Amino acid sequence: MGAIVTDKVDRRIGLGRSLLLGVLLTGGSDLFFPSAGRIHTQWLVIGLLIIAQLFFGIGLTMFQIKQVSLRQSLTPNQLQGRMNATLSMLSWGIAPLGALLGGMLGLVIGLSPTLFVAALGEMAAGLLLVFSPLGIVPHKGAT
Predict the structure, then answer these.
(1) Cβ contacts of residue 41 below 8 Å, gap of 6+?
(2) Of 31, 85, 126, 128, which sits 20 to 30 A from 91 (CA to CA)?
(3) Distance between alpha carbon 29 and the CA centroid of its chain, in Å?
(4) 60 belongs to a structural domain
């Protein structure tokens, strides 16, 4: 679904806003998971989790397609390998630290609050996009 709608969304609202929408859909759908523990009807929980996964997949796919395309268009050909290797090392290298932090936070505040904090953290990453030169918010002097 995300791959099907990405270009249409990008043409309609622009690259920066479609990247932000992808981040917000991904993080926003993760807000459904801590809520599922409060529902006592099994079928409602299953439906909620299916919807959450659908929007997570759409949002993450939209973001990934556009951010990879943007990085590749901005990086000279001779630096593509280094850029991808560096980003992979940073992305995958930090994951164990995030898992450790999430586990410790889960012990201190509990599973549902930790999932809530994690989802908010995902959505907060969109602030980097908001204040970037991608045209999400017009900057002073921009036409």
Answers:
(1) none
(2) 31
(3) 10
(4) yes
Angle value at C-alpha 138, between 8 and 25, nearest 5 degrees? 45
Q: Could you tell me the two tokens for 71?
A: 């990085």
3-state secondary structure of 132: coil
Residues 69-91: tens digit of each pLDDT: 999 999 999 999 999 999 999 98
37, 20 contact by CB (below 8 A) = no
- For the whole prediction, is pTM greater than 0.90? no
User: How far is the C-alpha of 1 from the C-alpha of 57, rounded, in Å?
Assistant: 8
End-to-end Cα distance, the chain: 34
Q: What is the pLDDT of residues 30-48, one digit of tens each?
A: 999 988 878 888 999 999 9
| Contact yes or no for 48/32 (Cβ under 8 A) | yes
Does any domain span residue 138?
Answer: no
H or E stretch including 116? helix 111-124
Cα–Cα dist 76/61, whole Å: 24
pLDDT, averaged across the chain: 90
Q: Is residue 140 part of a domain?
A: no
Provide the residue range defining the domain that includes 91: 2-130
